[in-house]
């Protein structure tokens, strides 16, 4: 419960301009949802946090079922849902979830649905517009848009989809400006330096105002986990990263240019986690969960989306076409 209370205090700090870290200040979507419940129904922030978390997590499960069904029918939908719930539970082994972690799961799951359904470029731009108010990981949506537009153009020997390409570039640039504007205008002071004993007493460079470089510390942790294994099995944190890299390569080998965008998307996430995340916090791996649940299914099928909307038995979803009396 102490972890939940600390998370709620951090979310209140975002609304008040006193986040744990400066880069938390732009993550407004979840705290504003909690504030809305507080204003409308009079519940305290702790209860509001629990309500929003349960609702968002339930929505994640529904979206994952829909995504799996779009890839390979109802059985694949149930498999995606089971994989999602299992991975979420496993990554909760070290519980430290802020409300934006739940929204990150949901928005990433919606992104996977848009990819599977081959949504138009403007759908990704709208999703980015919402996601930037939750987490800077929205940048990965733009990375996918640019990578997929270029891969499709190269494979089909044509000009790129300008909506996808320009939307990804302009969307990310505007997102970066929006994030920095929110941080610069809403921040009073970051208080993480005072709260966490393992943090340095003060920022050591101007870069700490934007992100905390963790690559050296993460590489040291990985070496220690592998060379001095303990009963806490911290080396298992590497498994999702390794599986993500494997699935990214498999998608490209199986689908070529069509899987290239998702492969770049996954590789960019792994690189960002090593550079700016982890430090033993398994919650950082949650953004990989929708990809991990669906990429294997997508790699094993020649089609996904509308063309693959069949049950595992090969029976099409929907009513059978009528036979004429002559052939009945």
3D structure, described in words:
The chain is mostly helical and 328 residues long. It has one domain. The chain is 65% helix and 0% strand. It has 13 helices and no strands. It is globular, with a radius of gyration of 21 Å. It starts with a helix and ends in a 28-residue tail after the last helix. The C terminus is likely disordered.
Quick tags:
328 residues, mainly alpha, 13 helices
Give the overall shape, derived from the CA principal axes: globular
Given the structure, what is the number of helices?
A: 13
Instruction: Give the end-to-end Cα distance, rounded to a whole number of Å.
Output: 65 Å
Number of separate domains: 1
Mean residue pLDDT:
86
What structural category characterises the helix and strand content? mainly alpha
Question: What portion of the residues fall into strands of 2 or more residues?
Answer: under 5%
What is the β-strand count? 0
Give the proportion of residues in helices.
55-70%
Radius of gyration: 21 Å
H-E order: HHHHHHHHHHHHH
Low-confidence stretches: 310-328
- Major β-sheet, in short? none
């Amino acid at each position: 419960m102490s972890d939940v209370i600390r998370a709620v205090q951090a979310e209140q700090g975002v609304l008040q301009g006193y986040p744990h870290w400066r880069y938390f200040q732009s993550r407004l979507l979840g705290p504003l949802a909690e504030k809305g419940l507080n204003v409308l129904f009079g519940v305290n922030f702790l209860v509001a946090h629990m309500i929003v978390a349960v609702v968002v997590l339930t929505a994640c499960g529904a979206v994952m079922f829909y995504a799996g069904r779009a890839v390979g029918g109802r059985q694949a939908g149930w498999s995606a849902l089971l994989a999602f719930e299992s991975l979420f539970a496993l990554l909760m082994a070290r519980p430290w979830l802020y409300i934006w972690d739940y929204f990150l799961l949901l928005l990433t799951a919606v992104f996977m649905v848009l990819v599977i359904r081959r949504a138009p470029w403007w759908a990704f731009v709208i999703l980015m517009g919402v996601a930037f108010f939750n987490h800077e990981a929205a940048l990965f949506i733009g990375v996918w848009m640019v990578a997929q537009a270029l891969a499709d153009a190269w494979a089909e020997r044509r000009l790129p989809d300008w909506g996808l390409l320009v939307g990804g570039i302009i969307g990310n640039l505007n997102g970066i400006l929006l994030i920095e504007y929110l941080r610069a205008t809403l921040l009073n002071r970051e208080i993480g330096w005072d709260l966490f004993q393992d943090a340095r007493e003060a920022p050591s460079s101007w870069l700490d105002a934007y992100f905390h470089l963790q690559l050296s510390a993460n590489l040291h942790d990985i070496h220690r986990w592998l060379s001095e294994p303990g009963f806490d099995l911290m080396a298992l944190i590497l498994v999702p990263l390794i599986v993500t890299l494997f699935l990214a390569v498999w998608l490209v080998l199986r689908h070529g240019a069509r899987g290239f965008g998702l492969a770049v998307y996954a590789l960019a996430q792994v690189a960002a986690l090593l550079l700016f995340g982890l430090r033993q916090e398994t919650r950082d791996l949650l953004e990989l969960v929708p990809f991990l649940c669906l990429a294997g299914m997508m790699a094993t099928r020649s089609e996904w989306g509308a063309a693959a909307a069949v049950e595992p038995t090969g029976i099409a979803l929907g009513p059978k076409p009528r036979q004429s009396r002559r052939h009945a």
